[in-house]
Amino acid sequence: xxxxxxxxxxxxxxxxxxxxxxxxxxxxxxxxxxxxxxxxxxxxxxxxxxxxxxxxxxxxxxxxxxxxxxxxxxxxxxxxxxxxxxxxxxxxxxxxxxxxxxxxxxxxxxxxxxxxxxxxxxxxxxxxxxxxxxxxxxxxxxxxxxxxxxxxxxxxxxxxxxxxxxxxxxxxxxxxxxxxxxxxxxxxxxxxxxxxxxxxxxxxxxxxxxxxxxxxxxxxxxxxxxxxxxxxxxxxxxxxxxxxxxxxxxxxxxxxxxxxxxxxxxxxxxxxxxxxxxxxxxxxxxxxxxxxxxxxxxxxxxxxxxxxxxxxxxxxxxxxxxxxxxxxxxxxxxxxxxxxxxxxxxxxxxxxxxxxxxxxxxxxxxxxxxxxxxxxxxxxxxxxxxxxxxxxxxxxxxxxxxxxxxxxxxxxxxxxxxxxxxxxxxxxxxxxxxxxxxxxxxxxxxxxxxxxxxxxxxxxxxxx
Length: 464
Known about the structure:
This protein folds into three domains: 133 residues, Fumarase/aspartase (N-terminal domain) (Fumarase C, Chain B, domain 1), CATH 1.10.275; 254 residues, Fumarase/aspartase (Central domain) (Fumarase C, Chain A, domain 2); 56 residues, Fumarase/aspartase (C-terminal domain) (Ribonucleotide Reductase Protein R1, domain 1), CATH 1.10.40.30. It is 57% helix and 7% strand. It has a two-stranded antiparallel ribbon.
């Protein structure tokens, strides 16, 4: 395998001849052998879209020669079609701001454009990573813009999955509407509810989170591209900012607007904190819902066993026939990871100084990672758990009928304190609530049947 020699401001190095990256990427590979984690595909796609748009705009403005611009555009189109992805190699944990990622993209595009023009990789007199591909750009405005675009790409995939989760849970709410069970507060018996009411509440909760996430994502539509190094726009044509926004809207079929203040767009990672926070809030509620499903499915003989979970794999290497709530457990773990990613983003966002927050590489990875794994987890959860979930109606009704909490319905008739005495006597004697009420002559059989209507207890009203 041959090499080629490249030079930068620090000196010369040998680059593998077949590599589409260049000397600055090589230095990053040597400097940051940290995690083995590479940039998320959406981050690469977003960055390449910016480079493509810049080539088009700078060509229109007469700043980039048409043959050079056309070669860069063709190279970008090839990458966006899935080619050369193996050459985006810089570790997630790299120098601040994302200069290594930006230059990795510049170098791959430049070397492919050089080939398109008939040259050999490394001949930067034909196409320069800095002077041509990076024209009118800085890492400092490219990377925050790329994170915004990449987040919107990922959210565009996540939101339909959340909508499907909402429909699935609401569908289960209708399916289980007739199933009466014991309610529980503090994990102790409470007045009856319907299993359908619980699942409908889950569905409504998901809808509210989906709407919040969509609103939070809108903050990413404000682009600071054209701020260049510090927000001033130095080295960019005065029309570059507006033309870039228009070109990116066209390329991505997304709505974008120019930043209200280009200094703010560079200094603050507010949009990422806002979006990540909305995703985290959904994750904590999704984890809570999964905990409920694990609890209601516990058993089969010593747990609640109110619902039946689909068996997806053997649950034990030593206990034959054991089946675990594997999908709900997976969702819990993903939600914990999302919360960890959000914490990283929050801490990174407050770590900026003056004109720039240099923590963008780790923010880019964590934001896209949390959105991606959450969407994947929810999709699998629907397919392998929620779709096949069924109710154990007999167990549910038995709990409701035997719960001492149903004595609450007696409050309007005999008062809270007298009802509490009935509960204590029931627990002490083992006699049922209904039996004690009749024995003490507190209600007639007809009144008792009317008052202790389990289905009626799940709706507002006073039972008489």
